[in-house]
């Protein structure tokens, strides 16, 4: 069994919540951690897509959903730092981040949190789809993922970003071929390798 901390928005998939989510938390405005009660919805979130890709290829993965983005898809770098610190303390195998920043505000604090967490687990992150240097993905302690068919340079892994999944409304759909979903797929590959060695 693999444990993945998924740092993103809220998971709303009934199937994921019932089968794979073993804990949900959010980082509040005071940078504290609070438990979160996931709400089921017919509309897929970014986290739903990432978690469905991970669980499609590594179905026994346990996911800790740590919410750092709001419903408008905006995040705060200080909340991300707090989430990385919290996730590392959960003894997860992988911290998955299909998010990041191209700005250098609080970059030293972010790098310090990443370095500390990398001594406890693997960190996987997506580079910005614009191809810009993205943090935390471009820190050397993080596996930086991009999707096949993109022109990015200076990354660690190029893998498939387009995957067929079942949406929350039960329709079969494909994820866009983005770096976010390539990172989710690479996280699944890591989880599959853990399962094979168990």
Please state the oligomeric state of the protein chains shown: single chain
Averaged pLDDT: 92
Structural class: alpha/beta
How are the strands ordered across the major sheet?
3-2-4-1-5-6-7-8
Helix-residue proportion: 25-40%
Number of helices: 5
Total beta-strand segments: 10
Gross geometry: globular
How would you sum up this structure, described in words?
The structure is a single chain. The chain has 198 residues and is an alpha/beta fold. It contains five helices and ten strands; from the N terminus they run βαββαβαβαβββββα. The chain has helices at residues 14-19, 46-57, 77-88, 107-118, 179-197; strands spanning 3-8, 21-27, 33-35, 62-67, 94-97, 122-126, 143-147, 157-159, 164-166, 172-174. The strands form two sheets. It has an eight-stranded mixed beta sheet with strand order 3-2-4-1-5-6-7-8, with helices on both faces. Strands 9-10 form a two-stranded antiparallel sheet. Helix 2 (46-57) packs parallel to helix 5.
List keywords for this structure.
single chain, 198 residues, alpha/beta, 8-stranded mixed sheet, 5 helices, globular
Write the layout of secondary structure elements.
Elements: E1 3-8, H1 14-19, E2 21-27, E3 33-35, H2 46-57, E4 62-67, H3 77-88, E5 94-97, H4 107-118, E6 122-126, E7 143-147, E8 157-159, E9 164-166, E10 172-174, H5 179-197
Can you summarize this structure?
This protein has 198 residues and is α/β, with parallel strands linked by helices. Helices cover 31% and strands 23% of the residues. The strands form two sheets. It has an eight-stranded mixed sheet with strand order 3-2-4-1-5-6-7-8, sandwiched between helices. It has a two-stranded antiparallel ribbon with strand order 9-10.
């Amino acid at each position: 069994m693999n444990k993945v901390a998924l740092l993103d928005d809220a998971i709303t998939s009934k199937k994921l919540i019932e089968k794979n989510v073993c804990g949900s938390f959010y980082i509040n405005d005071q940078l504290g951690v609070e438990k979160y009660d996931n709400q089921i919805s017919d509309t897929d979130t970014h986290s739903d897509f990432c978690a469905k890709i991970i669980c499609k290829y590594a179905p026994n993965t346990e996911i800790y959903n740590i919410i750092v983005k709001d419903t408008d898809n905006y995040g705060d770098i200080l909340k991300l730092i707090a989430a990385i610190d919290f996730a590392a303390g959960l003894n997860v195998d992988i911290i998955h981040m299909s998010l990041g920043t191209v700005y250098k505000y609080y970059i030293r604090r972010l790098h310090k949190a990443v370095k500390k967490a990398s001594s406890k687990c693997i960190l996987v992150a997506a580079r910005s789809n614009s191809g810009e240097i993205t943090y935390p993905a471009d820190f050397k302690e993080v596996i930086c993922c991009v999707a096949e068919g993109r022109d990015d340079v200076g990354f660690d892994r190029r893998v498939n970003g387009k995957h067929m999944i079942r949406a929350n409304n039960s329709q079969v759909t494909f994820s866009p071929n983005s770096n976010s979903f390539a990172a989710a797929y690479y996280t699944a590959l890591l989880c599959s390798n853990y399962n094979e060695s168990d």
